[in-house]
Write the structure tokens for this entry.
Amino acid sequence: MNLLRIAMLSSLVVFFVAGAHADQIPIVIDPVIKTGGVPDPAVPASIITTSFTIESPTGTSPGVGSACLLFQFGTLTSTSPACFFENDLNPSGAGEAITQLSFDISGVSPGTVSCGFLTGSPFAGCGVSPLAGGGTEVQFTQGSIPYHSDFTLEFQGFPKDTSFTATASPTPEPASIVLLLSGAGALFVRRKLRSR
């Protein structure tokens, strides 16, 4: 009988010790990238080129001590604690909307990565696919980030110091197209009047 009591007491001790240490077991979540559009009181980091890189020091940004680091033209240009950005693409002198946003992530299997949306996301579609040389591509489509508009990004569950090489596909703003066409039309009319 004493042997049974000792066995029961030992198993209870093991059970409670294991339960006490369960909070120290890290929770592994699959990597995910999300877009959003809720304004942040912070000043957004300005995106001025269609090719840029965002780095997450911890693999989860925004997060405690893990701001989004924005690299443009190969140089760190901004640090955004809330991963809050502004579309300032203006290559031709007329602002351009971002109609597609793609992220290439090397060293991460596409089978584990997902994409999603935060409140107010400027996009309605997203997809994940493998890259030819290995890694993962995440694309956000079916939407638009107008010129001088703000948006947020969220990166969760990636390895430390993950770099997200981004490509923004721009299209000129409708007002810019109208302005450009009216200027071309005015030049055409002026040439016709001069030739008479």
